[in-house]
Design a protein that fits this description.
Distance between the termini: 156 Å
Strand content: 15-25%
Largest sheet: 7 strands, mixed
Radius of gyration: 50 Å
Number of strands: 26
Strand order of the largest sheet: 19-20-18-17-22-25-26
Shape: elongated
Length: about 775
C-alpha cells in the first residue's frame, strides 16, 4: 500500500534493538540508556523520526553496520521523559517499513541512508478469506485460555488491510525474534497473512492438544502425581525466592560425600549412576528411600580409611602380658605377625582360630591384640546363626534389606583394617535359609576376601587388611573347608598355680574396683584362693573363679553399706566358707576306695578335661554286653573292641574262658544324663573288664586314657594338657598315657607336672601292672 506520509529525508538516525521487532502501527515504550541519547536527540531534530532495526550481536560487542537487519520500521516519537541519570523513556509508534541502504556514521549516533519500502495492495477474495480464518482462529485461541486483549478483537474486525492485519496478529503470537524479523521482511501482504495464518493454526493446535492432555491427565491424576506437581511448583517458587530446594541440597550433599569417601573407580561409577537415578525419582516414592539408604551405606564404608598400626614389638609384648597370664603360644604368634608386618607392610592379615574351653580368655585375647596393634576391635557372635544373609546381606529387591553383619560392623568401626573376632564359630546353625559356614568361606580365605561382595552393596570390598580371629570350644562341628582356611591355636585350661596368678593379678583388682571396695580393699590370702579353686570351682578356665571372688566382694560391700565394718578384711579359707557356705566340690578320687571293676579314666570335653569312672559288672546270662551311661556310637564300639580283646587274650591275664559263656557283662559310665563319646576310653574299659574278671581292685588314684585296638596297640589321644589338669583337680597321682604321646609332655610347664607320676605305656600288660592291685581272697 503506498505511503501517504510526507516525504522522508534520505538520512535517518538508527536505533538498534535486540529484545524485539517493532511492526508498523505498533506502540511501545523504550528505555534509552545515557549512551543512546545522541540517537534520540538526532531523531527529535529529524521531525521525531527514528528508524528501529533488529540487532543480532551480543550487547557487550561493538555495533557494526553488517550486524543490523536491512529491513526495519520507521517510528515516530510520541513522548519523551528524561531521567536524572541522563537516560530517558520514549514512547514510539511504528509507521512503515524502511530499507537500510548504507551507513553514514556509526558514532556517536548511528545514521544511515534509507528508502521507503512500497507494499502492494493485497485486498481481494484470498485476503478476505484469510482474514476471516485468522479471526476465527483467534476466537478459538481465546476460548482455550490464550490471553488476548479485548480491544484487539475489535480492531481486527475493523481492519481491511491484509498487511496491517498480519502485523497486528504477529505482535500477539509471541514468536521467536528471528521469526518476527522474517515476517517483517515479507513485503507481500497476502503472503505475510498466509504465514501468520499458518503460525496461528499451529499455535491453536498446540493449545488444543495441551488442553486435551490436561483434561486427560486431570482425570488420571492421583495423589502421587498431585504431590509431584505441587513439589515442582514449590521448587520453582523457591528458585524465584532464592531458597534452596531440599532435594537438590540432598543430592549435592551426597555428591560431596561420594567425593570425600575416595571410592575405588568401579564403586564411584556405581555411586554416580545411583545419584543420577535418584535425581529422577519423586522424593515421596518408596524407591527414593531405598536408593538414598543404599547411597548412605556406600558413603559410610571406609574404602580407604584405616587406623595406623603399631609395629612396636616390646609394646605389644607388654600389652599382651598386662592383659593375659601365660598363653605363650598365642603371644608368640601375634609377635611374629607384627614382625612380618614391620618388614612387609602390605602382607595380608592372618586368619587365626582360638580353640579352648570356656573361660580361658579367647574373646578378651582379641581385644588385647587390637590394643597391641593399634587397630579397632569388632566382635560378632556366630552362635545360633542360621541365615547366610547375616554374613552376605540381603539383595536390595527385598523390603528392609540391609548389608551383612561383616559390612555393617566395619562401617560402624570406620576402619578397613580392624581386628574382627568371629565368636563361637563351632555353634553356627544351618537350615533352609542357607549355610552361614559356607558364606564364611569367602570371608576367611586370604585369596578371595580382597574382592568380597556383599549382596546389598553389590560392589567388591577388600577384606584382606582385616585381621580375622575366630573362637571355638571344639573343632569337630566346624566344616572341614572352613577349618582348612584357619590357623588353629589351642588354648588349654589353666592349672591351679596359673589360676592363682590370674586371680591376684587380674580378677581380684577388677572385682574390688567394680564393687566399690577400693577405699579399703580386702586382702585375699593364697590359701583362700586355693580353697576357692579347689572347693568352689571345677573348670578349665577362670570364669567361675571370678564369680566366686565377685560374690565375696559383694558380701563385703553389703557389710560396709549396712555399717557393720569399714576396716580392711583379710580373706582366709575360714572366711571363704563363712561367706560362700559349704564346699561344692570334692576330690573325686581321694574320697573313694579301691574297688573291683571300677577304673578311673580321663576324658576331654568342650569345657576342658574331666575324669570318668568306668564300672563293669558280671551276672549270670547268655554272653550279652550291656552298655549304659549315654554312650555314643564310637564309645560303644570301643567297649565291644575292649571286650573282644580281653576274650582273645584271656589266658594272658589268667581269666577262665568259660566265664564268658554263661555270663552277661554290664559296662556303665556314671553321670548317665551326660552324653559321652570318643575312642580314648578304650584302654579304661579294657582295664575295668580285666579287674572284674580277675577280681583285682583298681587303684583309684591311677587314671588312664588311650584308644585300644583289637591287636592290643594303644593309639595316641588328644587334649593331653586338659586331661592332666583334670587329673590334678580330682586328686589323681598317677597318669597312664599312650607311649606315642610322650613328646606332648615336653611342651608342658614343669609346674603342671609337679607331684604327678606320668607313665607312658605301650601294651595292656603295662597298664594292668600299674593300675591293678593283687587279687582279693
Amino acid at each position: 500500500m503506498p505511503s501517504t506520509s510526507p516525504p522522508l529525508p534520505e538520512i535517518l538516525p538508527v536505533y538498534p534493538l535486540r529484545e524485539q521487532v517493532v511492526f508498523p502501527h505498533m506502540v511501545l515504550p523504550l528505555f534509552i540508556a545515557p549512551a543512546g541519547m545522541a540517537t534520540v536527540d538526532a531523531a527529535l531534530r529529524s521531525d521525531s523520526h527514528l528508524l528501529v532495526v533488529a540487532w543480532s550481536s551480543a550487547p557487550s560487542e561493538p555495533i557494526f553496520f553488517e550486524d543490523l537487519s536491512r529491513i526495519g520500521t520507521l517510528c515516530r516519537i510520541n513522548q519523551t521523559v528524561r531521567f536524572p541519570d541522563g537516560g530517558c523513556k520514549v514512547v514510539i509508534e511504528g509507521v512503515e517499513r524502511i530499507r537500510l541502504l548504507n551507513p553514514m556514521q556509526m558514532t556517536p549516533a548511528i545514521s544511515a541512508r534509507v528508502e521507503v519500502v512500497v507494499e502492494e495492495d493485497g485486498r481481494g477474495l484470498v485476503a478476505d478469506a484469510l482474514a476471516q480464518s485468522v479471526n476465527a482462529l483467534l476466537k478459538i485461541a481465546l476460548a482455550y485460555g490464550r490471553p488476548l486483549p479485548g480491544d484487539v478483537l475489535k480492531m481486527i474486525d475493523q481492519i481491511d488491510d491484509p498487511g496491517r492485519l498480519a502485523d497486528l496478529v504477529a505482535v500477539y503470537l509471541n514468536l521467536p525474534l528471528k521469526e518476527e524479523q522474517r515476517l517483517l521482511e515479507l513485503l507481500n501482504p497476502v503472503e505475510r497473512l498466509k504465514e501468520v495464518y499458518l503460525l496461528l493454526t499451529s499455535e491453536v493446535q498446540k493449545i488444543q492438544v495441551r488442553g486435551e492432555v490436561q483434561v486427560e491427565v486431570a482425570k488420571r491424576l492421583g495423589r502421587s502425581q498431585k504431590e509431584y506437581i505441587l513439589r515442582e511448583q514449590l521448587k520453582q517458587i523457591q528458585e524465584e525466592l532464592g531458597d534452596d530446594d531440599p532435594q537438590r541440597s540432598e543430592i549435592s550433599e551426597l555428591r560431596q560425600r561420594i567425593a570425600a569417601a575416595v571410592m575405588p573407580e568401579e564403586v564411584a561409577r556405581v555411586a554416580e549412576k545411583e545419584v543420577a537415578r535418584l535425581e529422577r525419582i519423586n522424593p515421596a516414592s518408596a524407591e527414593y528411600t531405598v536408593a538414598r539408604t543404599y547411597l548412605d551405606y556406600l558413603c559410610s564404608v571406609p574404602w580407604q580409611h584405616s587406623n595406623a598400626e603399631i609395629h612396636d614389638l616390646p609394646f605389644a609384648q607388654q600389652v599382651l602380658d598386662e592383659d593375659h597370664y601365660n598363653l605363650k603360644e598365642v603371644k608368640e604368634r601375634i609377635l611374629e605377625h607384627l614382625a612380618v608386618r614391620t618388614l612387609r607392610p602390605e602382607s595380608r592379615g592372618p586368619i587365626l582360630c582360638f580353640v579352648g574351653p570356656p573361660g580361658v580368655g579367647k574373646t578378651s585375647l582379641g581385644r588385647s591384640i587390637a590394643r597391641a596393634t593399634g587397630r579397632k576391635f569388632i566382635r560378632m557372635s556366630l552362635g545360633g546363626m542360621r541365615d547366610e544373609a547375616e554374613i552376605r546381606g540381603h539383595r536390595r529387591t527385598y523390603i528392609g534389606a540391609l548389608p551383612g553383619r561383616i559390612i555393617q560392623e566395619i562401617c560402624r568401626a570406620d576402619s578397613n583394617n580392624p581386628v574382627f573376632m568371629l565368636d563361637e564359630v563351632d555353634k553356627i546353625g544351618q537350615d533352609f535359609r542357607g549355610d552361614p559356614a559356607s558364606a564364611l568361606l569367602e570371608v576367611l580365605d586370604p585369596e578371595q576376601n580382597n574382592t568380597f561382595t556383599d549382596h546389598y552393596l553389590d560392589v567388591p570390598f577388600d577384606l584382606s587388611r582385616v585381621m580375622f580371629i575366630t573362637t571355638a570350644n571344639i573343632l569337630d562341628p566346624v566344616a572341614p573347608p572352613l577349618k582348612d582356611r584357619m590357623e588353629v591355636i589351642t588354648l588349654a585350661g589353666y592349672g591351679d598355680d596359673d589360676k592363682q596368678q590370674i586371680a591376684f593379678t587380674y580378677l581380684i583388682p577388677k572385682q574390688i574396683e567394680e564393687n566399690g571396695l577400693k577405699a579399703a580393699p580386702p586382702q585375699f590370702s593364697s590359701d583362700a584362693i586355693a580353697a576357692l579353686i579347689r572347693d568352689y570351682t571345677r573348670e578349665a578356665g577362670v570364669r567361675g573363679l571370678e564369680r566366686q571372688i565377685a560374690a565375696i566382694c559383694r558380701k563385703l560391700a553389703k557389710e560396709r553399706a549396712l555399717g557393720l565394718g569399714d576396716e580392711q578384711r583379710i580373706i582366709t579359707p575360714e572366711l571363704v566358707e563363712n561367706l560362700l557356705g559349704p564346699r561344692k566340690y570334692f576330690a573325686d578320687v581321694a574320697a573313694e576306695v579301691d574297688r573291683v571293676g571300677v577304673v578311673t579314666g580321663l576324658a576331654w570335653t568342650e569345657a576342658g578335661g574331666d575324669i570318668i569312672f568306668v564300672e563293669a559288672s558280671r551276672m549270670a546270662g547268655k554272653k550279652e554286653l550291656l552298655l549304659t551311661g549315654s554312650l555314643g556310637e564310637v564309645m560303644q564300639e570301643s567297649a565291644k573292641t575292649a571286650l573282644s580283646y580281653v576274650r582273645a587274650h584271656a589266658a594272658d591275664f589268667a581269666i577262665d574262658p568259660a566265664v564268658f559263656d554263661n555270663s552277661d557283662i554290664h559296662i556303665h559310665v556314671p553321670s548317665g544324663a551326660t552324653p559321652k563319646d570318643g575312642p580314648s576310653a578304650g584302654i579304661t574299659i579294657a582295664t575295668s573288664l580285666i579287674s572284674l574278671l580277675t577280681n583285682r581292685p583298681a587303684r583309684r588314684n591311677v587314671a588312664m586314657t588311650g584308644e585300644l585296638t583289637l591287636s592290643g596297640r594303644i593309639l595316641p589321644i588328644g587334649g593331653v594338657k586338659e586331661k592332666i589338669l583334670a587329673a590334678r583337680r580330682a586328686g589323681v597321682t598317677t597318669i597312664l598315657l599312650p607311649d606315642r604321646n610322650r613328646e606332648h609332655l615336653q611342651d608342658l610347664d614343669a609346674k603342671l607336672l609337679a607331684g604327678l607320676h606320668i607313665r607312658c605305656i605301650a601294651t595292656v600288660a603295662e597298664v594292668v601292672e600299674e593300675a591293678l592291685l593283687p587279687p582279693l581272697e
